[in-house]
Design brief:
By secondary structure, the protein is an alpha+beta fold. The chain has helices at 13-23, 32-41, 99-106, 123-129, 148-158, 164-184, 204-213, 224-232, 282-298, 311-319, and strands spanning 4-7, 53-58, 61-75, 78-90, 113-116, 133-134, 140-145, 195-198, 218-220, 241-248, 251-260, 269-277, 303-307, 323-326, 333-336, 351-352.
Length: 363
């Protein structure tokens, strides 16, 4: 009997967590079901009739899963509902039948567009097969190297060099790289009319800032309720998160969210998950970046990375010494279902993307 697809229910989450761990060959986290519940069933953007995801089953046994994450977005000032892919996993022997999950996702109704922020080498080709297209600029990244030795060590390990000699070379070359980066980098100085503070919550000031600064861009909505849920709520195992707010007087004019990602080969990575100001407010942008860099250095981070931001902002980061690179796969793809929406995926300046879009803040 062939495998079949059905919508998931909340009682499936423990089994789904185990499947994800099995596919990625790692232990299932103790709070895996709680993480999925937060992402799918506690999502403030989810509507009653919207599927939270689909299960692929063979004889009652779970062999595949695709989550469906609700995301309110703004397109030219219009409030629209997007469905975002997440956690697309299938056991190897069911890869072909895993296309049934993608078909369920693309055939859903009641949403305006399908939006992916975490496309990978395995999932992106499947999404494109069903008509999703890449969003221009989604694969852009800018990296500040704050401490060279761990970065050099990671590169050597990646190429198979380990042991005492590798550590010695990493130390010497890494120290030189740190010096070079400090000479190269000239981050922005203080902006006298803007002060930056750490925020411990999102409130009405965020709602007011969103209404002023949205600017007609195609972007995820950033109301206080959504941002509070995304970055302050959920299981305690969420990544360490810092939220900076930029103020003129008492008015919030920008925010920057960064998270510490899991160490890879000993490198302490901090990633900017969201950065939002009015398009023309470069002083607020500069002040937020300067504070994020200063705090990352003070916290002993090895790198600080910005991804998928508007090109004019990426160019500004590069001018201060960030190293530009392209991601191996563009993680952002979109397909419009509402015929009244015209979303120019090939025009990067029409979009404001961030890693926190869709399920990008999930862990």
């Amino acid at each position: 009997m062939p495998a079949s697809v059905r919508e998931i229910e909340e009682r499936d989450l423990e089994e789904i967590s185990g499947l994800i761990a099995r596919v990625f060959d790692r232990p299932a986290p103790a709070d895996g079901a709680a993480r999925l519940r937060w992402l799918l069933f506690e999502n403030p953007d989810a509507r009653g009739g919207m599927a939270r995801g689909w299960a692929l089953e063979d004889g009652g046994v779970l062999v595949g899963f695709l989550a469906n994450v609700a995301r309110r977005m703004s397109a030219a000032g219009r409030d629209v509902l997007a469905a975002c892919t997440a956690k697309y996993v299938v056991l190897p022997s069911y890869r072909v039948q895993g296309l049934l999950l993608a078909r369920a996702y693309f055939e859903q109704t009641g949403v305006d567009l399908l939006f992916c922020s975490t496309g990978s080498q395995s999932s992106a080709p499947v999404l494109k097969r069903f008509g999703a297209v890449e969003i221009a600029g989604g694969d852009a990244a800018a990296l500040f190297v704050l401490r060279g030795a761990p970065v050099v060590s990671e590169l050597m390990k990646r190429h198979g060099y380990e042991g005492a000699l590798a550590r010695l070379v990493s130390g010497g070359v890494g120290a030189a790289l740190t010096l070079v980066e400090r000479v190269r980098c000239s981050p922005p100085g203080p902006r006298p009319d803007v002060r930056v503070e750490l925020l411990d919550r999102f409130d009405a000031r965020m709602d007011e800032m969103w209404e002023r600064a949205e600017g007609g861009r195609i972007t995820s909505r950033r109301d206080a309720r959504r941002m509070q849920w995304l970055y302050f709520e959920g299981p305690a195992s969420r990544p360490d998160t810092l939220v900076f707010g930029a103020f003129r007087g008492q008015q919030l004019v920008g925010c920057l969210v960064c998270q510490d990602r899991a160490q890879t080969r000993g490198v302490r990575r901090r990633e900017v998950m969201d950065l939002f100001t009015a398009p023309e407010d470069l002083d607020a942008f500069d002040a937020l970046v300067a504070q994020a860099l200063s705090r990352a250095e003070a916290d002993g981070m090895d790198t600080l990375e910005f991804r998928s931001l508007p090109e004019r902002w990426m160019e500004r980061l590069t001018s201060w010494g960030a190293r530009r690179r392209r991601l191996e796969v563009n993680p952002f793809l979109v397909k419009t279902l509402n015929p009244e929406l015209l979303l120019p995926a090939g025009e990067a300046d029409q979009w404001h993307l961030s890693p926190g879009d869709g399920d990008g803040a999930a862990w």
